[in-house]
Amino acid sequence: MYKELNELLIKAKNGDTDSAAQILNRVQGLIFNSIQRYYNDRNEYEDLIQEGNLVVLQAIEDFDESRGVYFLGYLKTMLKYTYLNKHNIKRHLSLNVAVGDDGENEWVDVLESDEEGIIERLLKIEAASELKDALEKLTDRQREVIMAYYFQRLSINDISKRLGITYRTVVNTKTRALEKLREWM
Q1: Using 50, 70 and 90 to split pLDDT, how confident is the model at 125?
Q2: What Rg do the C-alpha atoms of the chain give, in angstroms?
Q3: Alpha carbon distances (Å) from 58 to 36, 41, 54, 170
Q4: Residue 105 per-residue DSSP state
Q5: Is there a contact between 170 and 180 (Cβ–Cβ < 8 Å)?
Q6: How far is the C-alpha of 117 from the C-alpha of 82, rounded, in Å?
Q7: What predicted TM-score, i.e. pTM, was given to this entire model?
Q8: 116: left (phi over 0), alpha (psi -120 to 50) or beta
Q9: Confidence (pLDDT) at 10
Q10: Domains in the chain, ordered, with CATH?
Q11: Long-range contacts made by residues 45-54, C-beta under 8 angstroms, separation at least 24?
Q12: DSSP H helical segments within 99-185, as ranges?
């Protein structure tokens, strides 16, 4: 087969279109195998076969006998890397791949944006309003401890010094305040 293929290759390189067509016919199995092995997507078979045919025609034109490799080996490598590259591009660029158990959503639907949307802003405003209302229900000392610890980022030790109360009292006040906030929110 190598000898016949090399004779056809020489004729095809000299412009014989029948020889190029015969090479295409003889390597269709190789194209199918390459598709199945490196990019097996049944929805794209016709396009992949046509792309494989173009690779064969380009390989006929680009093949250099002086490199000491067989045309068939060169062609296998060209097809392999064509389909592997195509697979990698699809894998890295397609945001229309179904995700989830039901398959109804696509990656593009679940991507997060760095920009805050109107819904997120409204939810934050609502949560802040709810927190403000809940904080107003706390005792003055509980509110002061929560504000100092969570908003001013003071340590328990610093809060106890500031308020002139023991470390343990600050911990107990904070714990009770958090329990009430959870209950109200």
Answers
A1: confident
A2: 35
A3: 21, 23, 6, 78
A4: E
A5: no
A6: 41
A7: 0.47
A8: beta
A9: 86
A10: 2-96 (1.10.1740), 118-184 (1.10.10.10)
A11: 48/83, 48/86, 51/82, 51/86, 52/79, 52/82, 52/83, 53/24
A12: 107-110, 118-137, 140-146, 156-163, 167-184
The token pair that represents 58 in the structure block: 């380009």
Q: In the numeric block, which tokens belong to residue 12?
A: 């095809």
Alpha-carbon gap, residue 125 to 175, rounded angstroms:
25
Structural tokens at position 51: 């792309």
Q: Which residue do the tokens 């009430």 mark?
A: 180
Q: Which two tokens stand for residue 3?
A: 């000898």
Q: Using one digit for the tens of pLDDT, what is the confidence trace for 24-58?
A: 999 999 998 888 888 777 778 888 899 999 999 99
pLDDT for residue 183 = 86
Tokens of 100: 């989830």
Of 60, 31, 64, the C-alpha closest to 48 is 31
Nearest to 29 by CA among 4, 56, 47: 56
Can you name the residues that pair with 106 across neighbouring β-strands?
98
Helix (H) or strand (E) holding 106: strand 105-106
Beta carbons within 10 angstroms of residue 173's beta carbon: 23
Q: Which residue has the tokens 């890397």?
A: 81
